[in-house]
Amino acid sequence: MKLPLADLIAFQRDQLGFFESRGNGASDPLVPLSMGAGPVYLVSDADLVKPILRAPEDTIDKGQLIYKLREIIGESSMVLSGEEHRTRRAAIHGQLAKGVSSSFVPEITAVIRQHAAMLAREGTFDAHQATAPLAVRIVSTILFGHGVLSAADETALITALHLAEDDLAAEIFKIIPDFPWVKARKKAKLSAAKNTMGFVVEKARSDAKRHSLISALDELDLSEKAMHEEILLLLLSGHHTSGSAAAWILYFLARHPDLARQIADEARQVSTPDGDVDASRLSRATTTMAFVKEVLRLYPSAYWLSRETKKPIEMGGRQLKAGTSLLISPWQMQRNPRYWPDPETFDINRIHSGAAYMPFGVGPRVCVGMSLALLELQLIALEIAASFEVELVSSEPAPPPKPVITIIPPPLQMRLHPRGAVTKRELHRAA
């Protein structure tokens, strides 16, 4: 007989392995989990994901597991539902869509080049410690304008986030409450982190430039508190998702030098004679985009998400009562041999679509920054491969990532070496 908390104990021991062991090979589309009070199921059938994530909010919506994130991000669009969620999302999406198609490319490439040059001068560096600040710098440029968030601001923001994220991740599936003194310590740490993040956000907002993303949020006439929480969400999500993925981009550029050379050649094809990426040609960089999508298949930043039934429903051959938690793991779905031949192998020739590919989620709550994230990661791959050869100093293969709110890459020691003495401008002249 299975113990009431057996799956919770296994989950806390190895979250990523837990999802794979329970989901891969499962014949039941909804796998029952013993994780404490209330019914919990792991969705193992990819064909159920869209119906769940596209269900009306009065049938299936965000549940208590997601709402625990309010401790950091407050009542931002991540936890909102209904018309308020749709209004905020539409404003952010519209502004991002305009920038992705035109103005963001030169802004992002300028940030990447400056950061890459700094890393090359440093010598050996840790990939994620290098790419997390890069991601914050890019998203702050989009939010506020170039140069508004200083290096000290970025460091303070990232440090404050790290102060709180481990404890917050542990709280999501906690059954036994902390001792009062432990709870007080965590509360004080979270309060200090939020105060630091709030100070940085307010400072950046006051210095924001016209026509930045902040102008779209200003038009929503949000309260000061709501505006603060929405900005904080965008900064933090940009830091985690793109920062983690960018670290893996460096890792696979180092492990696949022939592929890195193909991407470098593609960078030449989509650039002007001066070596600047031409936004109108980016659709031709198909190898680079396939490379990025395969990185996101193996290492989706969000390794699980949840929904909760609001009324009794029938799904997956089961009658589910109100309050049932449904867990969906992109990590497990995208490494499931049922959907991906030889799933642990890095292979850019896969078809990165279909029900089992969901690095940004699915449906009306798909990540609002998906297009920006793909653009950012594509440009990072193009710019780094064009100018540098990436050396992996750490041993291979990489150890598993660390799952917290998202999955954090392990220590990956890298070096950047200039790609010969030939510049991109000289390559154009030679062509």
Instruction: Kindly provide the radius of gyration, computed on alpha-carbon positions and rounded to a whole number of angstroms.
Output: 22 Å
Number of helices: 17
Main structural class: alpha+beta
Q: State the CATH architecture of one domain.
A: Orthogonal Bundle
Strand order of the largest sheet: 1-2-8-5-3
Task: Please give a structural write-up.
The chain is of the alpha+beta class. The protein has a domain at 75-302 and 371-430: Orthogonal Bundle (Cytochrome p450), CATH 1.10.630.10. Helix content is 53%, strand content 10%. Helix 7 packs across helix 16 and helix 8 (127-144) packs across helix 9 (151-172).
Give the gist of this structure.
The chain has 431 residues and is of the alpha+beta class. Helices cover 53% and strands 10% of the residues. α7 packs across α16 (370-387) and α14 (286-298) packs across α16 (370-387).
